[in-house]
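User: I'm curious whether this sequence folds into something compact or stays loose and floppy. Could you predict its structure so I can see for myself?
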Amino acid sequence: MAKEDAGKQVASAKTYRFGGRVSVEGMTIAQLSEERCQTDIFNISPDERTTKAGGARDWARAGQRIIYSQRELLANEASYLEKIPRRYQFLPEAGDQIVAPETALYCLTYNTRNRTVSDSRVLKFAQDMVSGAWLNAGDPVYFCLPEGEKTPWIISGQARLWASWLTNIPCEHTVRWGTNPDVQGIIDTGKTRTVTDLFSSLNKSRYRILPGASSLVRGYEEHEPRFHGAMTWETIPRYPSNDTLDWVNVNPQFEERVDSTFDSLKICRRLLQTPVLPSGLEYLLYLHSDDAKACKRFWEDLETGVGLAQNDPVMVLREMLVRDTTYLQKRLNRLTIAALVIKAWNLRQRGRTIKDLRWRTTAANLEPFPEIL
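Assistant: Here's the prediction. I'll summarize afterward.
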């Protein structure tokens, strides 16, 4: 059970990393849990959690204790619900409510479709709660229950609920209930909610890759000139979160190919600086090429470089990218890399041999983004 004497208290929101743990002025999550948390119900402090099928151990890394605790809570929900007293097992009604730590933990069993939670964010709220500085600013703990569904989920407020459980302090929260799940794509409380957060909350397996890869595909497909004339990756068109999600949902083959590309093009993910580029470019070549075998061979050759002549466009591209990985001070822009990949594809399709490969983006020799042949 929680100790009456809190001992060390969190005194500052400034966070540090040391010894593989995240702390606030030397007070780690493990120490907070030990001194305050009701560990007989749920212990947030262990370094390892049983989160994988078959009981395999999945180790919590620095800054991810709360993430692993959330997974543990959901993976073994029934056993923890037996430990939470019945009088605390309810979801708060809409409005300003005092939420007990046990009720906060119960609410977190409904945290099934949210973005990953940050240890440092939880510790920031914990600091306010322990020091007595916590105030309900009106940012809601938001539950969503669409019409026709039986089980709600938390859209926003998970870090505050975890902080309440961690510190064993009842806190006032503004509770809201809604029926429109699209709110999850636009809500912005406490920490800016990105399109990656939205995809993560929907359990998309490649949630970090899908938004950028879809922007690459759409920038090429939907604009004239391509990418709206952008010459750098930073200036290509971007799309709202829900719009990106809608596009991915109506293009299921895109998500399937991103999954397969991630597994098969491990070296290309490094050569092209990010898994976003091989994922998006592989899909573009797949869309525009009538020769599936040539497309497959192109990516296999770029991945391995085995048996290629020195003047093969793929070999020239590959060696250029290998060199680029060693020049960290002045690396190729990602949109330039995308253009070079397409140019190498086009040259190989034409049966050309080359010595050099480039995409001119200076004002004097401006070259449009290449069209896939």
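Summary: Residues 1-25, 47-60 have pLDDT under 50 and may be disordered. The chain is about 40% helix and 10% strand.
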